[in-house]
Amino acid sequence: MKKLRSPCRHPDITLPDMSVEFSVLHAALDRAVSYRGRVTDTPCGPVRNYREMLEVFSEPLPEAGSEDVDVLNDLADRGEQGLNPMTHPMFFGWVLGGSAPAGVAADWLCSAWGQNAAFHASSPTSAAIESVASTWLLDLLGLPADAAVGFVTGATVGNFTALAAARGAVLRQIGWDPDNDGLFGAPPITVFVGDDAHTSVFSALGYLGLGRRRVKRVETDGQGRMDAVGLARQIRNHRGAAIVVAQAGQINTGAFDPFSELQEIAGEKNAWLHVDGAFGLWARAHPHYRHLTKGVECADSWAVDGHKWLQTPFDCGYAIVRDKNSLERAMSVDASYLPSGDNNDRIPCFLVPELSRRARGLPTWAMLKTLGKRGVEEIIARHCGIARQIADRLQQATGVRIVNDVVLNQVIVSFGEPGLDLPERNRLTEAVIETLRSEGSIFVGGARWREEWVMRISVICNATMPADADLVADVILDAWKAVSGSQE
């Protein structure tokens, strides 16, 4: 075994008492455990809104500092009033995940170790853990084993990172290198996107200079799935560089694009196929839901979040690219003071748009190690079953309509008798949402689907259990009765 080097401490240097120095870390642990232990005893929503919290925290910059433990406790005392309890089993407002304790604990270590996870030399442990976690992720998701995995903040940056690789690859095919020569004078890239793509895709395209509006929007069906015939019709006469952006898990309906058909159409034009799979790509981790993603493994790149179904803390996502060279050309950095590696090295910062970066691979490794394949399968099956159970209960009630086909964990609901006009149904749906938020037993969100305002239920917190499904349905139906009864 290699002998460890001696501690980097000069004999003439006296260090402070660490028991005092680190007391703030113990205080943070106490406050964190206390908050998690009480989260289900509080209303499922923030006690104070943004404006109120701004008033709570507003004060002049202090002339002199304060004791760190006092500052920590002050932060917790004031800050908890404006927290949205996203780890609460009844939180269904957005597709977020529940920050499971194992991932949170690993994230604490990540911060306490204070590592910059850019290179092997800067943090051998972080680099090694990312490499192993990458292999595990590709295995779990059934994606090419030699694909490159960049650990990013979430699906927005995941889409950005993968599409940066796509931008370079499709332009190099026709003789232009945008990573070195920029986009001034470059041949145009045509991007084909489904009409119901997530907003993060358009943000990523804007960041990359490809434009939020300068896309070819492809029609979608009633569940938000891209129409393969529509794509074929639009791309038929296209010449030049092209990217097709597909979706695994539409944010409202949970629907999946027809990947096999899209890949065949894209392949005929040498177009890059990217898949935004922020939460839906996790369906590949369960044999019962894998069929929803048929053909997705044939794409060129994928974006997926860890802070959704893997239950890691924020911020954690992955940009996965089949061609490692395309990703490294888009992301790599070079300076004389930076370490270099040979062609076989996986250099973390060559795969993401960050040089200084936290070791966010640690929570991913910890959650995969804690759950294993069967644990991930269990969470997915449990949440999808809960979503189906809630939908089954709600659709039995008069004046309640389940708007989507519940294929995964997403349920969208409209309220109002069928004969009512759309504005009135929208008003009633918003009234139910507001009633639920005021009552505080559960937290749900609202969204516009087509022209209809719907209530969205996203079942994805690790703390949510099957026994909660009927309670959720009861609370929603009680709110509907209160709203509909007040109209009589």
UniProtKB/TrEMBL annotation:
The modification N6-(pyridoxal phosphate)lysine is found at residue 308. GO terms for molecular function: diaminobutyrate decarboxylase activity; pyridoxal phosphate binding. Its cofactor is pyridoxal 5'-phosphate. This is L-2,4-diaminobutyrate decarboxylase. Keywords: Decarboxylase, Lyase, Pyridoxal phosphate. It comes from the Bacteria. The keyword Oxidoreductase does not apply. Belongs to the group II decarboxylase family. InterPro entries: Aromatic_deC, PyrdxlP-dep_de-COase, PyrdxlP-dep_Trfase, PyrdxlP-dep_Trfase_major, PyrdxlP-dep_Trfase_small. SUPFAM superfamilies: PLP-dependent transferases (SSF53383). The keyword Lyase applies. Its EC number is 4.1.1.86. Pfam families: Pyridoxal_deC. It comes from Roseibium album. It is an enzyme of class 4 (lyase). One of its GO terms (biological process) is carboxylic acid metabolic process.
